[in-house]
Write a structure and sequence with these properties.
By secondary structure, the protein is an all-beta fold. The protein has no helices and eleven strands. The strands form two sheets. Strands 2, 4, 5, 6, 9, 10 and 11 form a seven-stranded mixed beta sheet that branches. It is globular, with a radius of gyration of 13 Å.
């Protein structure tokens, strides 16, 4: 099983940027789809972005498309989420997740596809 630890959260003003990191350890990092989810206070967890094992395929929620960028560095066993033009509605706890795959271009947008989760990092965007 892969273990995940997020970092990089914090407080930022609207319009600002943050870059989240998720360091992984355990099983072979490269054969996992990686994703980011978030949970705002009083709401359920929602999909943000995902990247395939090969890094060739990415997918974003409509709410973050054009503002957030997901990437992965297999040498560093780390996945990143660059967040630009942040809005107060982006305030949430952000979680990274990993799901095993046998296909290099696969990606997952559903929670149930992921089997390992980090503990989360808080992102707060002030207006």
């Amino acid at each position: 099983q892969v273990q995940l630890v997020e970092s990089g959260g914090g407080l930022v003003q609207a319009g600002g940027s943050l870059k989240l990191s998720c360091a992984t350890s355990g099983r072979t990092f490269s054969r996992y789809v990686l994703g980011w989810f978030r949970q705002a206070p009083g709401k359920g967890r929602e999909f943000v972005s995902t990247i395939s094992w090969s890094g060739s395929s990415t997918y974003y929620a409509d709410s973050v498309k054009g503002r957030f960028t997901i990437s992965r560095d297999d040498a560093a066993n780390t996945v990143y989420l660059q967040m630009n033009s942040l809005k107060p509605e982006d305030t949430a706890v952000y979680y990274c997740a990993a799901g095993r795959t046998y296909y290099s271009s696969n990606y997952y947008s559903g929670e149930n596809e992921y089997t390992a989760w980090g503990q989360g990092t808080q992102v707060t965007v002030s207006s």
